Structure formats: structure tokens, C-alpha cells
Amino acid sequence: MAESENIVAETAEKIFADLADAQTINRDEKGEWKAPLWQALSDAGLPLAWVGEDCGGSGASLAEGFSVLSAAGRFAVAVPLAETMLAGWLLAQAKIASPGDEMTVVPASPKDRITVNADGSLSGRARGVPFAKVAKHLAVLASDAKGDCSIALVDTGKCRIESGLSLGGDPSDIVTLDKVQPIAIKPAPAGFDQTRLMLMGGVTRSLQIAGALESMLEISVRYSNERVAFEKKISKFQAVQHNLARLAGESAAALAAATSAADAIANANSFDDEVFLEAVAAKIRCSEAAEKGGGIAHQVHGAIGFTIEHILHRYSLRALAWRDDFGSESYWAVELGKLVCKRGADELWPLVASR
Amino acid sequence: MTAALRFDPIRLPSECEQLRKEVRAFLAEEIAAGTFDPHQPNREDTDVPEFSRKVGARGWLGMTWPKKYGGHERSFLERYVVTEEMRVANAPTRRFFVADRQSGPVLLKYAPEHIKMEILPRICRGEICFAIGMSEPNSGSDLFAAKTRATKTDGGYLINGTKIWTSSAHIADYMIAIFRTSPPTKENRRHGLTQFLVKMKQPGIQVNPIGQITGQYEFNEVVFTDHFIPDDHVLGEIDGAWKQATSELAYERSGPERFLETYYVLTELVRAVGNKPDTRSAEGIGRLVAQVHTMRRMSVSVAGMLQAGKEPVVEASIVKDIGTIWEQQLPHRVRELAAFVEETATNRETLEKQLDFAIKTAPKLTIQGGTTEVLRGIIARGLGLR
Ligand SMILES: Cc1cc2nc3c(=O)[nH]c(=O)nc-3n(C[C@H](O)[C@H](O)[C@H](O)COP(=O)(O)OP(=O)(O)OC[C@H]3O[C@@H](n4cnc5c(N)ncnc54)[C@H](O)[C@@H]3O)c2cc1C
Questions:
Q1: Which of A15, A173, B92, B333 is 20 to 30 A distant from A40 in Cα terms?
Q2: Inter-chain touch B88–A249, beta carbons under 8 Å
Q3: Residues of B in Cβ contact (< 8 Å) with A265
């Protein structure tokens, strides 16, 4: 990673370490930790990292932003940082300036559609929208009758929000737009469509999942070196060592897939089949790793990891929840399988070996 | 972070892409000429000496080694590309692969100069085949239980004992083996093993074939009876081979051959399914492609670390552990999906034959080169658990 990426990521890492310590968060049932954390992140310009200075952001590179997301995953932060970054990025595609508050993106599922009506208003329903309830603004991707895409900034107050919760306990809401007039609306750049938004969202979630797995590995290794059973540390039992080795494997696979996809997107000139493979493979493999790796982390922790007091669930449940946003692994696997079959058997290896 | 695993997204540099084209064109020519059939992994005649020589003539053996030994001073990443293209095409690499991957590097490090000058250029020309003599009847995972003795005599050593599971011993010109030169000590049970260069097809070496459940004859029992090895064929430190042998294994552990051995069934499944897959087939194929892509990204990342002069022991073990489990499960997953292939698929029979062979091959994948359990022990040590 380049030096500058490290500086942005280190800033994020330091803020999380100071203000988003998992123990502190777990004890603070009222959620009072959120305001100072968000303030510090905003002061550091992180929520609008991907927005150019001309549009009110801090103009970090895609790669720098991705490294912030990895750090956010390692701390399993439950504030709409990733969502605001994505929303800012989406708005910036159409040169719409971002307001400096919490945002999220709509739609958050590849199956949901928002339409632009003839009068320029927006209609549609989007499910599983992360943090819609706390967001002040929405970045919306919508399409008109001809299928042309537009990007819009919408006041969340103008929409109907039905509250829901993700597996990890974070807001995951249904957003209904009924002829809502956006604050700003502009055509999306040529070639920009909903798939592209979903892929960017999917890579975001992949990095977060990989980060959460790194933390699960770390706390599981640490715990196994502390917990004594049958008069020895459980880390000395071969069966436990092998479980942890498998967790390391899943964590490594997630990390490799997610960072490779982020690197591919950060350096892409166009969204071709190769970038598609990188992005969806990351979402698929990281989701699989969340299931396998999270299961092992809980096994190693025994009953204590199943308690609300323990921090493990902050990582394990969020990693599982993030599988569902921007297309689940089974959704993308079908899409990837279709693409592979369409290209034909002899084009499979050239695709896999393309970089 | 305790673990601090790193898998940086290494990209293959542009010279690799040019090379990949050359390798593909070469393999296409060889396939057209009938040298081998890429759809037939189950061949009796995987030993094709002319093919080895042609690969050598292209400069694709000893690619990373110094020019003075016949090498080409190219990068690990370039070697990586050649290996994966050969593997995916099911090319007959048995005769040269072990020498190129690990025996050559061992000689480079530990052989006396005149032996390097004599042997390495011949490996690079694809003329000679190597075997690895580590395992014995009572010493597999526990390498340090090896008993085959090397007894000091005038000008060299006399070897007595038996090696087993020795791949390619029946066609090999040389073997790099470990023998016991003194008993283990109380303080160090790894002490007392020495690595030797063995010239095969000499008096005192008998090679007995051992059949495999796939129907192939790939590995052997090798019996040594007062076989003489000259002093200058000792490799490295006397009694200290354990360090050498374990670092040698690192070469064996993260390459593309560690997740692509049964890959051909996936290609054939895609062919059989056709361009409009049903949802279940599409999902199954999509997942497998996502997994192989991820494996490859991890493996390329380790190749990048080797290129940078690092010793990624834990990362390489992780790649072998999850890679071999993946290639072991692959034929079974493909078999499940093959149940939905139309009767009319033109390659149906090929797919079925391949599955039959791949399913028979699968059990060995997590054993050769260090078992799953042994690898997880290495990973656990890297995690600070032992
Ligand atoms: C196709 C093939 C080719 C091979 N080619 C070669 C070759 O060219 N040269 C060569 O030297 N060898 C070769 N081998 C041998 C291979 O390296 C050994 O089979 C391997 O090291 C395992 O040893 P083993 O078979 O004696 O099994 P064992 O060591 O007896 O192991 C049996 C089982 O017990 C487990 N086990 C053993 N010890 C432990 C432990 N401490 N903790 C947990 N589990 C343990 C193992 O993981 C395994 O599951 C080849 C093997 C195969 C299958």
C-alpha cells in the first residue's frame, strides 16, 4: 500500500481505537458512544472521503477510502461511515455536492428499483437499506421508462421509512419513495448502472467482513491462550489449534479476495468482466468465510462468546449481516455462473487468469 | 494483530501476459500435434521425454536460476504463469516438474559448484528427472523418524534401508533424499539426518512400483542395499538436514499445482451446461469460480512474496491447506451439478470419465507434500499457539 493510503487509514484506525473500542461500546447500552465517534470521523473528513473537494469532500483516492473500510471492518463500527462514503461517491459520479451529515444509498439490493417519473419525482421501494432511519439524506440511483439512469440527492424526511434491524442489530430499513421531489437530480455518467452501484457496495461489505474476520481471529487466538481447561491452555489442544488454523485460512481468503477486488476497482478503467469477477467473487467468498470463520470463533470461545456481554458478537453477527447487503452471495453466484456459461468453457480460464 | 496475515493484491506484470500468450500457443501446437490430450487427465503415458526437452528449449525450466547454470534469471511470477498454464492444459509435466520446483533450488543452495555446473543445465534443458526421498514405511508426517542409514566409508557413504511413496522414482535420474547419519539426540530429535544427491539406476538401488487406486503407477518403493554415494554428493550440513528439508517443503506448498489438479472437471461442466444454465447450475458454477479465483489471488500473492525474497511459511501453508481441500471437494461438487446436465450434451461422456478419475484422485490431494493436519500444525505455530 502507498504511504498516503496508510495515513488516511491510520487516522481512521486511531479514531476507532480511541472512540469505538468494542468493550466500551458493549457497555454503553444507550448508544452514547455514537455522537463523539461520528464527530471525530467527520472532523477528519472520513465520511466524505470519496467526494472531491469541489463537491464538499476530502478527495481521498478510492484506494485510501477502501483502506478506511478495512479498518472500519476490523472495529465492526456501527455508524453509517461506509454508507455515507458510498453515498458521497455515488453523488460525486453525477457531480452532485454532498451535505455533511449521515447518508445512505438506495437501493441496497440488486432486485429493488427506483423510478424517475415524467415530472422528475422519484418512486419505488427499497428493502434492507442500512441506516436509513438515522440518515438525513439519501443518495438514490433511479432509472426512467427508457432505462436511463439518474443519480439524486433526497431528503430522508420526504420518504416513508419502516424500521428494521439487521442480524448485527444495526438499522436495516424499508424506504418507500412516493413521488418524492429530490433536492438535486442529474443523469448518471454513461455506462453507470445499478449493477455498478451494487458491485461497489458489495466490495465495501467484503472489506468490512474481511476486517471483522481479522478481529475474530485475533480475539479467538488470544482467548485460547488465556482459557485453561483440563489443566492447560486450550490453545495447547491440537483440535483447537486446527480450528484456529482453519479460521486463519478463512480470514486469509476473505482478506485476499476483498483487497484484490478493492485494488481491481481502484485501478479499473472500465467495468469489464474481469472487474465484475473480482467484485462478485469477493462478495461470495467473504460471505462464505463469514459463515465458516464466525462459526469457528464462537466454537473456540465456548459459551462466553454467546453472551451479550462478550464482544465477539459485534464482529460475528455484523459479518453475517453484511452478507445480505448489495446482493447476497447466492444472488451473485447465479449472476457469475450465468456470465461464465455465456462466455463458454474455453473462456473460463482466461477470465480467471486475467490478472 | 497477533496473526498479521498479509495477502497483498499482487498483479502479474505485463511481461507475464506476453509469456502467457507464448505458453498457450506452444501448448495449442503440442495438442494439435497429438503430444497429449488436454481432456484426458488419466493417461498411462504422462512421461513424455520429448515434451520436457521442448519445454526446456523454450527457456521455461530453471526460469529463476542464474544464467551460468543454464537458468534464465526471470521472476517467480513468470515461472508462476508457465506452471499454471501447463497445469490447466493437463500437460505431461511429470518428468521435469519436481526438478524445476524443488530439487534444482535445493542443489543451487547446497550442492558443490562442480555438481551444480554438471546437473543444473541438464535440468534446464529438460533432460533429467528428479525424485524426492523423504518418506519411509514408518516415517511420513513424522519425518524425523526416518531410519534409512548412511554409514561413513572410504570416500563416501553406504546406504541401507527403504524409501516409500517416491513419486517418479521409476523414471528418475536422480533423487534428493534424507538419510540417517547419526541417531537423534535427547535435546533434539531432529538431529542426525543428512541430505544426499542420489544417482539412480546404479548398483544397490531397486525400484518397486506401487499401484494407485486411480489405476496409475506413479509412486514406488525404493530399496537401498549397500548403495555407495561419494562424499561430494552430500548436500549441506551433515546431521542438520531438518532445516533444509523443511524449507524445501515451502516450495512445494503454495503454487498453482496446489489447487488446480482437478480443475479440468469445472471447465468440462461449464461446457456440458451450455450457455443458458438453470439457476442451480449457475449458482454452483458461480461459487466454484469465486472460490478458485480467490485461491489464485492468494497463491499469486505468495508468489509475489517469494519474488520479494520473503519466506511466507504460514501463508504458503494456508494456501496449501485450503487449496488442496478445495481441489479435493471440487469433483464432488461438480458431480452434484452434473446431475442436471442434459442427456444431449456432446461432452457428457468426457465429463463422466473425468469425474470418475478426479474422484479417485481426490483422496491423495490432502496427503502429498504434507497432510492437512501437519499444515494446520504449522499454521498454529505461526499464530503463536505452540
Ligand atoms: C500421491 C502421493 C505422492 C507422494 N510422493 C512422495 C514423494 O515423492 N516423496 C516422498 O518422500 N513422499 C511422497 N509422498 C508421501 C507423503 O509425503 C506422505 O504420505 C505424507 O507425508 C504422510 O505420511 P504417511 O503417509 O506416512 O501418513 P502418516 O504420517 O502415518 O499419517 C496418517 C494420518 O495421521 C495424521 N497424523 C500423523 N501425525 C500427526 C500429528 N502429529 N498430528 C495430527 N495428525 C497426525 C496425518 O495427518 C494423517 O492424516 C506421497 C504421497 C502421495 C499420496
A1: A173
A2: no
A3: none
Last residue of a domain, which of B194, B215, B240? B240
Residues in chain B with CB shorter than 8 Å from the CB of A223 are none
Q: Which of residues 189-248 of A touch B (CB under 8 A)?
A: 214, 217-218, 221-222, 224-225, 235-236, 238, 240-242, 244-246, 248
Count up the domains in chain B and report the number. Answer: 3
| Residue A162 identity | E
> Between chains, do A236 and B383 touch, taking CB under 8 Å as contact?
no
Region A322-351: mean pLDDT is 98
Question: How many angstroms is it from A150 CA to the middle of ligand 1?
Answer: 60
- Cβ–Cβ of A260/B385 closer than 8 Å? no
Mean pLDDT value across residues A20-41: 94
pLDDT for B71 = 98
Alpha-carbon gap, residue B195 to B214, rounded angstroms: 31
Q: Is residue A173 pLDDT above 60, yes or no?
A: yes
The segment(s) of chain A belonging to CATH 1.20.140.10 are 194-354
Q: How far apart are CA B95 and CA B85, in angstroms?
A: 17
ipTM over 0.95: yes
Tell me which residue range forms the domain holding B225.
132-240
CATH code of the domain in which B359 resides: 1.20.140.10
pLDDT tens, B62-78?
Answer: 999 999 999 999 999 99
**Does B129 have pLDDT greater than 90?**
yes
Is B159 a domain residue?
yes
pTM of the model: 0.97
Residue B141 Cα, ligand 1 centroid: separation in angstroms?
5
Does B368 reside within a domain?
A: yes
Mean pLDDT of all residues in A275-283: 98
User: Which cell numbers in the block locate residue A58?
Assistant: 476530502
Backbone torsion region of residue B90, taken as left when φ is above 0, otherwise alpha when ψ lies between -120 and 50, otherwise beta = left
**Around Cβ B239, how many Cβ atoms within 10 Å?**
17
Strands B193-199, B234-235: pairing kind: antiparallel
Reported as a single tens digit per residue, the pLDDT across A205-218 is 999 999 999 999 99
Domain boundary among the residues B98, B128, B158 is at B128
A272 DSSP assignment: -
Q: Is the peptide bond before A107 cis (omega within 30 degrees of 0)?
A: yes
Residue identifier of the C-alpha nearest atom 3 of ligand 1: B368
Q: Which fold has domain A1-187?
A: Butyryl-CoA Dehydrogenase, subunit A; domain 2 (2.40.110)
B304 assigned to some structural domain:
yes
Together in a domain, B295 and B232: no
Domain A194-354 has CATH 2.40.128.20: no
Comparing CA positions, the residue from B273, B296, B281 lying closest to residue A350 is B296
Q: Is 80 exceeded by the pLDDT of residue A240?
A: yes
Q: B371, B373, B375, B379: which to mutate for ligand 1, most atoms within 8 A of CB?
A: B371
| Mean pLDDT, all residues of chain A | 96
Q: Which residues contact A58 (CB under 8 A, 6 or more apart)?
A: A45, A46, A48, A49, A51
Distance between A273 CA and the closest CA of chain B, angstroms? 13
Distance CA A272, CA A283 (A): 17
